[in-house]
Amino acid sequence: MQSYAKNLIYEHNLTDFDVFITCFPIFYTTFAEKSVEIKKNTYNYMIEIIEKYFPNLTEEQKKQFEALDALYRDWNSKINVISRKDIDNLYEHHVLHSLAIAKAINFRPGTEILDFGCGGGFPGIPLAILFPECKFKLIDGTGKKIRVCNEVATAINLQNLKAEHLRGEDEKGKYDFVVSRAVMQLPDLMKIIKKNFKQKGQNALPNGLLCLKGGNLKEELKQYFKISEITPLSTFFDEEWFSQDKQLVYVPA
């Protein structure tokens, strides 16, 4: 392109402005084509990384997962929902990370799940997309993050989820499972949520807590050592990020 512009100047004695007017459509078309290509590749990656591990998604679910990118980028420009340094890793570090829970249990229709300390909607929103016949309630003590959850759910027509600005201590409902992403130390979390479990279960896994955690959990899980199950996320996913001390902890109610 640069040599083409130089030839125009040399052969036709054109000014820089003349060259700009002549070449602009070519530059613009090339840029637009590259933008479409990048967008297409990004879209393919977004869908492929989910389908790689969850190959039976419906077209509706694919559209819902795809829509999360633009929605969270928009909200992240207004509210710090996700670290701005990490927004480009939304599908690996947040969506797929949330779906690790679905690798441990296939929730049966009618299962009720509480997302404790949901932040901007993780793990609750990805799980609600994957399990449309289950009911999800998301709670968080930060009102603006709950607003994001409700707006995202409305935008993608996610009808099996509601989010409420509420402290965990004030949640009175009964659920089959509580899910969470590293909200607080596990003993403190269990003290708060023990009131929220249904006695009777309906899934292959007994009712309890499914919590995504990182780091060394030896001290934190000391009192639950005999009853808890810890699964490295690298068991489920082969991306490098999941091999970095990321785990799923299950504690029965």
Automatic annotation (TrEMBL):
Locations listed in the record: Cytoplasm
Cited InterPro entries: rRNA_ssu_MeTfrase_G (IPR003682), SAM-dependent_MTases_sf (IPR029063)
Source organism phylogeny: Bacteria, Pseudomonadati, Bacteroidota, Bacteroidia, Bacteroidales
SUPFAM superfamilies: S-adenosyl-L-methionine-dependent methyltransferases (SSF53335)
GO cellular component term of the entry, any: cytosol
Residues noted as binding S-adenosyl-L-methionine in the record, renumbered to the chain: G117, F122, D140, G141, T142, G168, E169, R181
UniProt-listed Enzyme Commission number(s): 2.1.1.-
Keyword rRNA processing: yes
Keywords: Cytoplasm, Methyltransferase, rRNA processing, S-adenosyl-L-methionine, Transferase
Main location as per UniProt: cytoplasm
Gene Ontology molecular function: rRNA (guanine-N7-)-methyltransferase activity
Similarity comment: family membership: Belongs to the methyltransferase superfamily. RNA methyltransferase RsmG family.
Biological role: Specifically methylates the N7 position of a guanine in 16S rRNA.
KW Disulfide bond (keyword) present: no
Protein name, as recorded: Ribosomal RNA small subunit methyltransferase G
Naturally occurring in which organism (per UniProt): Segatella copri
